[in-house]
Amino acid sequence: MDSHYNAALTPRGRARMVRAVIDQGLSYRKAAERFHVDPKTVQRWTQRYRRYGQKGLYQRSSRPKCQPRRTPKRIVRQVIARRRQRWTMDRIAMNMGISRATVCRILQRNGLNRLSALEIKPPPQRYQHENPGDLLHLDIKKLGRFERVGHRITGRRVGTSRGAGWEYVHVAIDDCSRIAHSKIQDSETADAAVDHLLAAVRYYRSLGVTIRRVLTDNGACYRSKKFAAMCRCLGIRHRFTRPYTPRTNGKAERFIQTALREWAYAFAYTNSTERGEHLPRWIHDYNWHRQHGSLNHKTPISTLGLSGDNLMRLHT
């Protein structure tokens, strides 16, 4: 049985208890009173330490050394072989004359209790467009608002910001340069998606990049007539990801993970307003200063031939 290393009576606590008996000469009863345990417990751990040393202070497995009724290895191999032929648990149990529970335990121990584990995963199809603006990935991340420091920092769920609502982080990332743009909106409606698209197009245009295509998932805001009309007005071709396949829009998904780790959950913000105010500064650092592994550890902005802090772009 695993237990916390710093708990009261784990290997470290047992070592202190045993040392109190061996080194300090305390009786079992006195040591039991000091460590708030039964005297028999003190006696058992002391005897184990004297016999096995430090290893004797760890919990031993309760599994018996001899298990005569355990399923034979021959049966286990047959169950696994039938499972690899896509047989169901019920069919295996009926065919081999064993219980379904036995089949389930065997397959679970071998990681085959789900049929999906037998499917061969397709190799990742990595791609990158040649020129900035050829493809812009769009996505949305829903974050909860809060009015005070939450349980991620304090570790306590008391005094939470119940009823504070939600905010939606609309993100965009260029496929070639990995230059990102993000904006916090109050909703994920078509109007919010169109507003973010316009803001993103203006931002990339300020860098000399013209957006020609966008890639989104099949969310209602991206399937709306308003979003389609805005794409036609801007001369942008709109593409959709394969349904139920988030990896199709993998660059946006990966950027969201990075944003959560390095921005949203990286600091103890007083409230969600303070968190939102920090987003533009983090985006600037991501584009101008943060090295990107897929770009041979260069900054995204370096793909455009730009360098330096360029604080004017951050504060305009």
From TrEMBL:
Residues 128-308 form the Integrase catalytic domain. One of its GO terms (molecular function) is nucleic acid binding. It holds the Pfam family rve_3. It comes from the Bacteria. GO terms for biological process: DNA integration. Gene3D superfamilies: Ribonuclease H-like superfamily/Ribonuclease H, Winged helix-like DNA-binding domain superfamily/Winged helix DNA-binding domain. InterPro entries: Homeodomain-like_sf, InsJ-like_HTH, Integrase_cat-core, IS481-like_transpos, RNaseH-like_sf, RNaseH_sf, WH-like_DNA-bd_sf. NCBIfam families: transpos_IS481. This is IS481 family transposase.
